[in-house]
Design brief:
Distance between the termini: 23 Å
Radius of gyration: 16 Å
Largest sheet: 6 strands, parallel
Strand content: 15-25%
Order of helices and strands: EHEHEHEHEEH
Number of helices: 5
Number of strands: 6
Structural class: alpha/beta
Shape: globular
Helix content: 25-40%
């Protein structure tokens, strides 16, 4: 059994100017970095030149994103809610990989007004289920009208999410090593 820290890719899904996703991602990653059982790598979609349409052959940035998804053992998707959904940039990135997502856990950090981005999360769950991932029940969610990122409830939500992600990530790591996932 591999006892090395679980490699978590924190995917910042918004590419809009004026976004708060990078701040939310840094806040979350700052809390995750206190754990010795995890190591995080931020994949901010603003740093990838992903095409608006999927070309016949993957671009270098599409290949790079897919490679980083493949190297990760778990994911945390930081997503805003735009019009009761998640951003197109995030869907485009998700579609750059396929087999690379399989048999790995996915957690969510969402933000928005009033609904805290939870409509976006529910839609993302269906997409990640199709990709044969395990989505975490508990999320971290922010109401941007409150203007706070560090309430006791949110800090506890991070701990709960990371505990579940670590358990599933390590269990699935061992399972993939014992028997490759084929479906």
């Amino acid at each position: 059994m591999d006892v090395s820290p679980l490699r978590i890719a924190v995917i910042v899904g918004s590419t809009r100017e004026g976004r708060v996703g990078d701040s939310v991602g840094k806040w979350f990653t700052g809390r995750a970095e206190h754990r010795e059982d995890l190591v995080t790598d931020v994949l901010d979609l603003v740093d990838f030149d992903l095409p608006a349409g999927l070309p016949e052959h993957p671009t270098p940035d599409m290949k790079r994103f897919a490679r980083l998804v493949d190297e990760a053992e778990a994911f945390v998707v930081v997503t805003p809610e735009y019009n009761r959904s998640f951003p197109a940039s995030l869907k485009q990135a998700i579609d750059c990989a396929y087999d690379e997502w399989r048999a790995k856990p996915v957690g969510f950090v969402s933000y928005g007004y009033r609904s805290q981005g939870l409509y976006a999360v529910e839609q993302l769950r269906t997409i990640f289920t199709e990709l044969h991932t395990v989505t975490m029940r508990d999320t971290v969610a922010f109401n941007l009208l409150d203007g706070t990122l560090d309430s006791d409830g949110q800090v506890q939500a991070v701990t709960t999410l990371l505990d579940a992600l670590a358990w599933w990530g390590l269990a699935l790591r061992d399972a993939r090593a014992a028997r490759p996932y084929v479906c």
